[in-house]
């Protein structure tokens, strides 16, 4: 027993599918079968959009396009406002900020009864040999401060980097005070670099108006030479060769610094970025001194270049850099007892650190001349330590009595860098005013971010609806199909194409039904009759519903393969034909090998497979299949 299905076309052009009572195909004679009708059931195929609905679809698409444009414009304005406010906050706080982090006592260290270092939220007091020295900072991180707390202060300037500013985060201090701990951290307590990279990817994924991409480079400055840490040629044992490897620093016409030949890898996600970062770290050369067994005698620089691509609303791609720098140990050479190469290494580090101090001091004093040329480090950072950039220096100190001398040296270094913009120069009233201004700006920033948050889901929803409507229109849009057909045909083929347009074809079918007149090109030829017989033979092996459906199509035109120019027929045929096939394919019976008929490679294979009946070929919406259909139609017309 099977269900008989018949397809009818009403005068309005609607497709009706009438379902018949279950009958035995063996017992009921054909004459009875055709008259044994029950009340027709009308189904509306979801893939088929009637003409009037298509117009509505087009109207809806244009209104959604307008809405998307409007929301994007609003977001763009809010984003610009957010950028401006963030910039003001950072400038009010100081575009060069200096923090201090005090290392906790290690398990191997003896804790003195009277600790030489005491601290407040933004100051450090050193008491030693009857003297008291006080140093001010933008913020002091106590011994108990977590990696997360430190990162919290860095986060705002990462946003600034994404907004197009060059940003520099530097870890400064004596060997063994925790510079590497702060920058790299451990597996359990990741440091600033991995957290910052993760945050960049996070922020980029939430940017609905721009697409953001990143590249990464790592280099080491050792004894005044630059070494590429991500180069394929570098090996872990490259320490000896490090002095031979030198890269040139170039300045382009816009004043941007480029390092000639430096490897720049594209990082598409955090995992890849972390992998490259770890690779660079392994390659970094270290030598041994008697102060700290793993002391770094070089500066390690990690650069993330941020490309913020245009939003499609007139803005260009913005490029900015985030530098994360683990500076070499700043200890005085006498104390290390260094001789030979280690002494030279120490000298080179001290020279570059003092050049860095000079540059920062000049920038903070807003002095005309900034001595960038005095070291490789400052030459490289020239475009990232300048006026539009944001700098964050983290000074690390030891809590130990024995290190007090070094601690005072490190703190004095930063005192020079903070000389002008420090709080010390401000009266209490001015300080309060400054803090009030910062909190007002922060409030404004929060409001702007809230407004952005409200718009983003609306924009996403509008974009989703727009793409859905476009897809729906695409599947039913005859013009689109025609365009594809035209593209596939060569100009010469197009001239040969004598077939009627879809609309006139419809008319012709209707006319032939009503008047009994069949135009010459629609009368069957020997070849078409053979093909029809072949396809019917093939269809007989398929489920009954497909057989009847295909029969209806073959009846519509006796001389041509079913034309897919009628969108409704196409949608109906595609759905009705592919479902049983898919079901059969998914059953995976030995006779029918498991196939996914949506697989385009398989569809393409089928097109070239001449053993398949042509009726199968025309069921796909694949443009390649249409090419075959056009070819078939052309041949038909040339036969008549
Ligand atoms: N805030 C901290 N909390 C816990 N342990 C810390 C902290 N800071 C540093 N340490 C520990 O102190 C030791 C020295 O730290 P680290 O190697 O980071 O110093 P460094 O300044 O980078 O030294 P170098 O200049 O030789 O590279 C490490 O064992 C590290 O785990």
- Which strand-content bin applies to the residues? 5-15%
CATH architecture of the largest domain: 3-Layer(aba) Sandwich
Number of strands: 16
CATH superfamily heading of the largest domain: Kinesin motor domain
State the name of the first-level CATH class of the largest domain.
Answer: Alpha Beta
Ligand types = adenosine-5'-triphosphate
What fraction, in percent, of the residue positions are helical? 40-55%
Essential attributes:
640 residues, alpha/beta, Kinesin, 9-stranded mixed β-sheet, 3-stranded antiparallel β-sheet, 20 helices, 16 strands, binds adenosine-5'-triphosphate, nucleotide-binding, P-loop_NTPase, Kinesin-like protein KIN-14U
Can you describe this structure?
- The protein folds into 4 domains: 1-43, no CATH class; 52-94 and 440-474; 95-420, Kinesin motor domain (Kinesin), CATH 3.40.850; 477-639, no CATH class.
- Helices cover 48% and strands 15% of the residues.
- The chain has 20 helices and 16 strands.
- Strands 3, 7, 8, 9, 10, 13, 14, 15 and 16 form a 9-stranded mixed beta sheet that branches.
- The longest helix is centred in the C-terminal third of the chain and has 49 residues, at 428-476.
- It is elongated and about 105 Å long.
- The model is unreliable at 1-5, 15-44, 236-244, 287-295, 488-519 and 542-640 (pLDDT under 50).
- Bound molecules: adenosine-5'-triphosphate (ATP).
- The site of adenosine-5'-triphosphate has 17 residues, from helix 4.
């Amino acid at each position: 027993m099977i269900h008989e299905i018949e397809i009818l076309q009403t005068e309005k052009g609607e497709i009706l599918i009438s379902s018949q009572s279950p009958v035995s195909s063996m017992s009921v004679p054909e004459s009875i079968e055709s008259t044994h009708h029950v009340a027709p059931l009308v189904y509306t195929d979801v893939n088929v959009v009637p003409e009037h609905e298509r117009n509505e679809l087009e109207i809806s698409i244009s209104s959604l396009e307008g809405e998307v444009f409007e929301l994007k414009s609003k977001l763009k304005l809010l984003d610009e406002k957010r950028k401006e406010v963030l910039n003001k906050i950072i400038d009010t706080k100081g575009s060069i900020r200096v923090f201090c982090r005090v290392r906790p006592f290690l398990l191997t260290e003896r804790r003195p009864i009277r600790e030489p270092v005491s601290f407040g939220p933004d100051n450090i007091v050193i008491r030693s040999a009857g003297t008291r020295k006080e140093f001010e900072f933008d913020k002091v991180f106590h011994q108990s401060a977590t990696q997360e707390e430190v990162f919290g202060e860095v986060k705002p300037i990462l946003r600034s980097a994404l907004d197009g500013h060059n940003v520099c985060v530097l870890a400064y201090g004596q060997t063994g005070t925790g510079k590497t701990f702060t920058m790299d951290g451990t597996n359990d307590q990741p440091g600033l670099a991995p957290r910052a990279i993760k945050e960049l990817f996070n922020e980029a994924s939430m940017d609905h108006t721009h697409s953001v991409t990143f590249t990464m480079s790592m280099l080491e400055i050792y004894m005044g030479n630059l070494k590429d840490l991500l180069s394929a040629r570098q090996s872990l044992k490259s320490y000896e060769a490090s002095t031979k490897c030198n890269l040139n620093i170039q300045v382009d016409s816009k004043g941007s610094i480029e390092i000639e030949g430096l490897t720049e890898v594209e990082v598409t996600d955090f995992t890849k970025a972390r992998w490259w970062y770890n690779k660079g770290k392994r390659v970094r050369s270290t030598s041994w001194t008697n102060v700290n067994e793993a002391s770094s005698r070089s500066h390690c620089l990690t650069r993330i270049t941020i490309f913020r691509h245009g939003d499609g609303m007139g803005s260009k791609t913005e490029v900015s850099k985030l530098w994360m720098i683990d500076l070499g140990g700043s200890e005085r050479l006498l104390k290390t007892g260094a001789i030979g190469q280690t002494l030279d290494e120490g000298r080179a580090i001290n020279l570059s650190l003092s050049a860095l101090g000079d540059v920062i001091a000049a920038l903070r004093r807003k002095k005309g001349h900034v001595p960038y040329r005095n070291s490789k480090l400052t030459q490289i950072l020239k475009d990232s330590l300048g006026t539009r950039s944001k700098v964050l220096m983290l000074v690390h100190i030891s809590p130990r009595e024995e290190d007090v001398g070094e601690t005072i040296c490190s703190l004095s270094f930063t005192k020079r860098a903070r000389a002008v913009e420090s709080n010390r120069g401000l009266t209490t009233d001015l300080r309060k005013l400054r803090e009030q201004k910062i909190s007002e700006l922060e409030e404004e920033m929060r409001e702007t971010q809230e407004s952005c948050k409200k718009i983003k889901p609306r924009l996403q929803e509008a974009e989703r609806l727009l793409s859905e409507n476009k897809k729906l229109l695409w599947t039913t849009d005859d013009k689109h199909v025609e365009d594809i057909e035209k593209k596939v045909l060569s100009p010469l083929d197009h001239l040969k194409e004598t077939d009627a347009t879809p609309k006139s074809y419809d008319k012709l079918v209707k006319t032939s039904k009503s008047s009994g007149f069949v135009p010459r090109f629609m009368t069957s030829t020997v070849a078409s009759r053979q093909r029809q017989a072949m396809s019917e033979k093939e269809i007989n092996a398929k489920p009954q519903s497909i057989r009847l459906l295909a029969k209806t199509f073959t009846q519509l035109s006796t001389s041509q393969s079913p034309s897919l120019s009628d969108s409704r027929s196409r949608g109906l045929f595609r759905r009705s034909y592919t479902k049983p096939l898919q079901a059969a394919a998914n059953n995976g019976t030995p006779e029918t090998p498991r196939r996914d008929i949506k697989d385009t490679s398989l569809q393409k294979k089928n097109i070239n497979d001449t053993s398949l009946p042509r009726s199968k070929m025309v069921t796909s919406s694949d443009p390649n299949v249409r090419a075959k259909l056009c070819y078939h139609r052309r041949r038909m017309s040339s036969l008549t």
